Amino acid sequence: MRPHYKLEAWKNAMNLVDEIYKISKGFPTEEKFGLTSQMRRSAISVPSNLAEGAARKSKAEFANFVNIAKGSLSELETQLIISKRQNYIHNISSLLDLTGKVSSQLNGLQNYLTTNN
Q1: Residues in CB range of 86: below 8 A, 6 or more apart
Q2: CA 48 to CA 10: how far, in whole Å?
Q3: Phi/psi at 86 (nearest 5 deg)?
Q4: SS3 for 55?
């Protein structure tokens, strides 16, 4: 497998982590162990699962970790919408654009891994 840090999906997922940390710093303190923590864990899970999957021996195992990363990304999208609805952040369009880009890259990676066994 390719080293995970060369994957465009991993690079963009890392950028997403940076953005989530930036915006969640402004959340209310009562969300420290709630939404702030959950969003950060979801964001971190995406590149972490790509890294773990890339280290596995088979493409099928890697594809499974990509699938887990896709689930974490969907969680994060939901949490972004919740944050907007709670007025913790006002403009999430650029973040949703980035999650969409990562999602497309994960789909492409998963397709590659499952069709080229």
Answers
A1: 35
A2: 8
A3: -90, 5
A4: coil
Give pLDDT tens digits for 39-68. 999 999 999 999 999 999 899 999 999 999
3-state secondary structure of 78: helix
Residue 50 amino acid letter: L
Structure tokens at 41: 């864990």
For 1-117, strand residue ranges (E) read: none
The parts of the chain modelled with pLDDT lower than 50 are none
Distances in whole angstroms, Cα of residue 44 to Cα of each of 12, 16, 18, 109: 12, 9, 9, 18
Half-sphere exposure of 35 (CA within 13 A, CB side): 23
Q: pTM for this one?
A: 0.94
Report residue 3 as tokens: 């080293």
Tell me the CA end-to-end span of the chain in Å, nearest whole number.
12
Find the farthest-apart pair of alpha carbons in the chain and give their distance in angstroms, rounded.
48
Q: Encoding tokens for residue 115?
A: 């069709």
CA distance 87 to 74: 20
> And the tokens for 66?
């990509």
